[in-house]
Amino acid sequence: MPSALLKDRALVTVSGPDAEHFLQNILTVDLDRLKPGEAKPGALLTPQGKILFDFLISRDGEDGFRLECRADSADDFARRLTLYRLRAKAEIAKADQALVAVSWREDSSPSETDSDSVVDTRFADGSVRRGYGRAAGDADLAGWHAYRIAHGVAESGQDYALGDTFPHDVLLDQSGGVGFRKGCYVGQEVVSRMQHRGTARRRVLLVSAQSALPASGTELTVDGRPVGTLGSVSGTSGLAIARIDRVKAALDAGKPILAGEVPVTLAIPEWASFTFPETAPEETARAGAEEA
């Protein structure tokens, strides 16, 4: 299995008799469904429902949790958790000099068993494992990002900005990062309303092109009008967060979608359950009127 050491990742630990109850009440992920040996995605939201911090959470012993997050936000994340702790019996700390490694398989062979690693559940086939506290054997960062992009797994910093994105935008509702049957958590009302009304329109999509894609942050446009933004890029493949209603309208009208000057094709990740919405009649009529 190829592997890579992720120097831009860090660990925040939460432990103690009240750790699970405390985290369950503020995070999007449902800890009742978190099994030992798993790392699930999740987020701490603003009261307005936007992602303030994102992470992968796994169990660490009987009453402890590891929250793997961006290294550049780990200190702020630990401080924000401490503000929410109040009287809960839970110890919160940023792990010093923590090593975070990832390994993945690129074929259909069974994954290697490693008692010191956890399965990254964002990859439904179990092909990715996270390792903590030891260095990776290889340093194939480009290979890792290409693998993540190919599977439609977005990460903050490279694909979206913290504080400006809803969980549905980055498919946390699809990857098990939001517990819709758990109790309240910070920002829960907004997220639940989006889920029940089906109003999510910005989604992560796979991007492919016949030539090299432009840099991350390039706008996706149709007839000069923005429909999304390019995120992570690996050669001719990438990720984008785009308005799926506008993408569907462009597909129905046969109009090209451009990333800068490069024509691209957009697709929904195979593992996701959402679909492109039907183009509303008024949108079709408006498009026809604009062309006339």
Secondary structure topology:
Elements: E1 3-5, E2 9-15, H1 19-24, E3 38-45, E4 51-59, E5 64-70, H2 74-85, E6 91-94, E7 100-104, E8 117-120, E9 128-132, H3 141-150, H4 188-197, E10 202-209, E11 219-222, E12 225-234, E13 237-243, H5 244-253, E14 257-259, E15 262-267, H6 281-291
Parallel strand pairs: 3-8
Antiparallel strand pairs: 1-7, 2-5, 2-6, 3-4, 4-5, 7-9, 8-9, 10-13, 10-15, 11-12, 11-14, 12-13, 14-15
Structure at a glance:
The protein is α+β, with helices and mostly antiparallel strands. The protein is built from 6 helices and 15 strands.
In CATH terms, what is the architecture of the largest domain?
2-Layer Sandwich
Overall pLDDT: 91
Strand content: 25-35%
CATH topology annotation of the largest domain: Gyrase A, domain 2
| Name given to the CATH homologous superfamily of the largest domain | Probable tRNA modification gtpase trme, domain 1
CATH class of the largest domain: Alpha Beta
Fold and architecture overview:
The strands form 2 sheets. This protein has a 9-stranded mixed beta sheet, with helices on both faces. It has a 6-stranded antiparallel barrel with strand order 10-13-12-11-14-15. Helices cover 20% and strands 31% of the residues. The protein has 2 domains: 3-194, Gyrase A, domain 2; 201-291, Elongation Factor Tu (Ef-tu), domain 3, CATH 2.40.30. The longest helix has 12 residues, at 74-85. The chain is an alpha+beta fold and 292 residues long. A hairpin with a 2-residue loop joins strand 11 (219-222) and strand 12. The protein is globular, with a radius of gyration of 20 Å.
